[in-house]
């Protein structure tokens, strides 16, 4: 497990209202996880902490959930709550900036 804190956004399929309690409980049991939020309507799970994508995906699979990593930001600014909006517009903006950065790295 990495010691640096990260902010990981996952898209999880078929979330239920019950998952609002079960997913945070299961993910908080992983070493290094500091905070978990679940948005059932959008299917988005946000995790702050030092757990890896692999550890998170394994824990979700153990609960019968399929997920994909949307964003993974590591480092001192990655886990800043101010840098991440909980709205869908904020998530779209994050994805756009991520794609823009990839495009700039590709063409430079």
Automatic annotation (TrEMBL):
Quick one: signal sequence residues?
A: none
Gene3D superfamilies according to UniProt: 3.30.70.100
The domain of life is Eukaryota
Q: Enumerate the Pfam families for this protein.
A: HMA
Query: A Gene Ontology molecular-function term?
Result: metal ion binding
Q: Where is the HMA domain?
A: 25-66
What is the designated name of this protein? HMA domain-containing protein
């Amino acid at each position: 497990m990495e010691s640096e804190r990260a902010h990981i956004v996952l898209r999880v399929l078929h979330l239920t209202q019950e998952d609002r309690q079960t997913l945070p409980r299961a993910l908080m049991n992983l070493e290094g996880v500091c905070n978990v939020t679940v948005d059932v309507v959008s299917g988005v799970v946000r995790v702050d902490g030092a757990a890896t994508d692999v550890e998170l995906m394994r824990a979700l699979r153990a609960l019968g959930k399929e997920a994909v990593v949307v964003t993974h930001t590591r480092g001192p600014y990655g886990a800043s709550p101010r840098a991440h909006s909980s709205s869908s517009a904020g998530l779209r903006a994050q994805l756009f900036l991520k794609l823009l950065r990839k495009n700039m790295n590709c063409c430079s």
